Amino acid sequence: MRKLVIAEKPSVARDIAKVLKCSKKGNGYLYNDEYIVSWAVGHLVTLLEPEEYNEKYKRWQMETLPIIPDHIKIKAIKNTIDQYKILEKMLKSDSIESLICATDSGREGELIFRYIYDLAKCNKPFQRLWISSMTAQAIKEGFENLKDGSEYDNLYHSAKCRSEADWLVGINASRAFTIKYNTLLSIGRVQTPTLAIIAARQKEIDNFVVSEYWEVNADFGEYKGQWFEIKVNGDKKTEETKILDKNRANDIAKKVKGKIATVKSIECEEKKNPPPLLYDLTELQRDCNKKFGFSAQQTLSLVQDLYEKRKMVTYPRTDSRYLSDDMIPKLKIIASKLMGTEKYNKYASYVFNLPKLPITKRIVDNSKLSDHHAIIPTEAKPNINALSDAEFKVYDLIARRFLQVFYPYYIYNTTKIVTECEEENFVTRGTTVVDKGWTELNVKSEKEKKTEEVLPDINENDTFETKSAKVAVKKTKPPQTYNEASLLSAMENAGRFVDDEILKEQLKESGLGTPATRAAIIERLIKVGYIVRKGKSLIPTEKGMKLIEIVPVELKSPETTGKWEKGLSSIAKGKMDTEKFMGSIKRYVNYIVNSSQQGGCKVIFAADKPRSKKVRASILGVCPKCKGYILENSKGYYCSNWKQGCRFTIWKNALENYGVAIDKDFVKNILENGKIENLFVHKPDTQEECNCSVSLASDNSGRLDIGNFVKVEKWN
Question: Which residues are known to be catalytic?
Fold first, then answer.
């Protein structure tokens, strides 16, 4: 009798198998006398499509909405069904006594395992591996401290509710508004409020009226000053440097030029800035976007590789910026590993040689931990030379941030001089660094580098001649367009867009999406044509702006997500019943479908256009389902009769896992013959080189059936 370990990916399974000494290879698994280690390939199981419940849902019609099945069902994903069948066979085998869930330690990882477990109708006991690092030591310790699987039941219920709720809202809202406006519209619980944030900013920019203002700058010989006046608003006093009247600005300049100015006051203050907090995923994505121009998705992919393949950082999909107290003994060990790398030796040696690490609540705080702690380097010795340039940039930020938190405060002095001339006041500010502290580890670009503003040694009541006074014309600037860094901040802090105080607090914890999903949400908005990248900016398209016009407030407000996240969080904590939550979702879906039919179609959407004339003109064959024409778009090959309800589609990424790019010649061939023989592929589970056959599925959906694998023999 053996224990079956199920990991989320083949690469992770191989790492676990190495620790468990499972050196024997089977078809889709590794094993020894005690364990079998197998894997998913991400999600192997998904929710059924509407037409799989009833043929009538194939055609998008308002009479069939809302689509709310009594029981939402699951199925194996076609592209990876071979690996699912391998797992299913083992789950049902009498030779397997129990299971160990080793998928990613989070809500989505839990869902991947449980969906496989449920679809296979398995009832064997299972334990949970919950780790934050992929080093051999962390895996070993994880297996020594396995948790009972039932401890994560509430996390699974939360994940299942999230999955089903997103399906119900997405399917019904997208169909309802697509039918109403006769154009394909994609609507989602998180993507639509995110789009609304971008659209609102664009509206501010479009409505912004540029106005001029003026400033007066005086030169007192040894230093310069800027004119200001005190504005009082209630109890608040501000120093206003803007002059709204050009003549007044000119009068002030003429008035003080050549006159004697007196130093009215000098204020000196020492300021201390503490080290920044450790990285969570969102903060890391922000910094990578600001410093290197990486997209959120690119950063996620890089840090995921640093975690899984390189074993150099801890679990990245975290929303925590703190460590747990049980990690304190490991901190100097991590510093010692960084000492072995020339790039960090100086800084790591400082941390390692501290008599006692300055552990504060800014570093270690159990009360602020979620599923995982902050992203930090692992205890493994970093192999910097093995990293690509992009991987190194991400790792470098994480390593430096880890060391920074143990460094002293950045201390600097600020000086403020107020100079009076002809009853007009001028302010001068200067900064001098006392102790660089943690900023010594900063790597700044030339644009980011700031020189100290050292002021002359002067005293109160000293007098100077005003050598010159110049008027500078300025213009007000509209709000900046969102880039990925600022949009991630807006998504993380979506509570500021909400009036309800309780929901505002809830959104402090969750925001729009999760650290693991925000990158995908941004990419999704781009793929469906609602926003575009222009340089670093994210700009809403006309279609995106119009969508926000037509959907009800409930669909585009972060408040809705706040309510959902509050419910999902309560389920995960065992404080809310899943039926109560799903009942509210079903009522919401009914409301959305009904609201889509209110009023006339005042907003007109432009017809969906293929991306190029070449694509528009290219007819690749006849649809086997309705005899329409097969055309190409950015994501697949579809039927020209899609508006009439034909859903035949061959997706371009359908054979991605097998290393096959589906191009026009492939589509023409399979449409003409129904089958392609002797297609060369790499099997996704073993990377084995094979020839196989691919055919169109008999249900005329455009799905591809792949089989008849024959191993390719290599000859020397």
Answer: 315
